[in-house]
Design brief:
Elements (H helix, E strand, L loop, with lengths): L1 E3 L3 H11 L8 E3 L3 H7 L4 E6 L8 H10 L3 E11 L9 E7 L2 E7 L1
Parallel strand pairs: 1-2, 3-4
Antiparallel strand pairs: 4-6, 5-6
């Protein structure tokens, strides 16, 4: 399990919450997502993104993740957004919860 948050307070909360789990394979980072992608050597099955709304280009983030080669075959990318998205990737599911949208892509 790899957890990352660029926000220092959120990162500190991840550190605190990690202590509640017995799994020793949880790695926590405080990096910009591009720096994290450059440091990762593990392949993953699921990526969950909840970037600061309106700060990042979601298409760019997906491109960066795919180009980084960290995804296993048929990996899922889940994006939380405050706005309706239209991205050029195969959409598996889309849901709206209150003011948030959840998108699931299979890559």
């Amino acid at each position: 399990i790899i957890l990352n948050d660029n926000d220092k307070n959120a990162y500190n909360n991840l550190i605190i919450n990690k202590k509640k789990f017995t799994d020793e394979n949880i790695k926590i980072y405080n990096l910009d997502y591009k720096n994290l992608l450059n440091t990762m050597s593990n392949k993953v099955d699921i990526v969950y993104l909840d970037p600061p709304y309106n700060k990042y280009d979601y298409e760019e983030i997906l491109n960066d993740i795919i180009n980084s080669k960290i995804l296993n075959k048929d990996a899922l990318i889940i994006i939380e957004s405050s706005k309706k998205l239209s991205l050029n990737y195969p959409l598996l599911k889309e849901r709206k919860y209150g003011k948030k949208y959840i998108y699931i892509f299979m890559i």
